[in-house]
């Protein structure tokens, strides 16, 4: 698929078909993720690949437990239906104070790599600013050591549904020239 076609076609679909996602395919996605830019080229990533139904259920419970009322449009239970869930973590010592950015960029690569192969992935945060108990609970579920920060949780699978329409802002609305506000 052409790159632009991948970008335009990528969507977060929260219903998955029963088709399996092989280990080789997951490795190919992660191979794209670990080529993302990172602060000082620290490449601080660690990826945990989860297929266990029990672990998926515990991750969903934790996400829902800490989800504020204003953000409950998408309960996390859908991740139980994903054949595979990839958690992107960061080794703080290699992150040069930019662990979140590096983790998020790697996750962006992962999502686009998935889309280019006909898969859907859904971005979910694995930490909450000001609430370290969220990352701590995820650390406990996954056996992640204290010096490693979980950043994102991405359920991945073949779509079991078709995405609804998405309205995207036009460049004319958001692009300025030379100074903010100048069209
Ligand atoms: C920082 C961030 C946090 C998100 N958190 C969640 C989440 O907790 N649960 C969820 O189902 N989707 C989550 N999403 C996915 C967005 O809902 C989704 O990307 C958005 O609705 C646009 O839809 P699209 O990905 O199909 O273009 C998150 C996305 C981002 C970038």
CATH level 1 name:
Alpha Beta
List the uncertain runs: none
Q: What is the CATH architecture term?
A: 3-Layer(aba) Sandwich
Shape: globular
Structural class: alpha+beta
Number of strands: 5
Calculate Rg over CA atoms: 17 Å
The secondary-structure element order is HHEHEHEEHEH
Q: Into which percent range does the helicity of residues fall?
A: 25-40%
In CATH terms, what is the fold-level topology? NADH Oxidase
In this structure, how is the largest beta sheet organized?
5 strands, antiparallel
The CATH fourth-level homologous superfamily: NADH Oxidase
Strand content: 15-25%
Mean pLDDT: 96
Describe this entry's structure for a reader:
The protein has helices spanning 3-9, 23-33, 53-65, 99-116, 132-142, 171-174; strands at residues 45-50, 84-91, 120-121, 124-125, 148-157. The mean pLDDT is 96. The chain has six helices and five strands. It is 35% helix and 15% strand. The chain has one domain: NADH Oxidase (3-Layer(aba) Sandwich), CATH 3.40.109. The protein is α+β, with helices and mostly antiparallel strands. The structure holds flavin mononucleotide. Residues 11-12, 14, 74, 122-125, 163, 166 line the site of flavin mononucleotide.
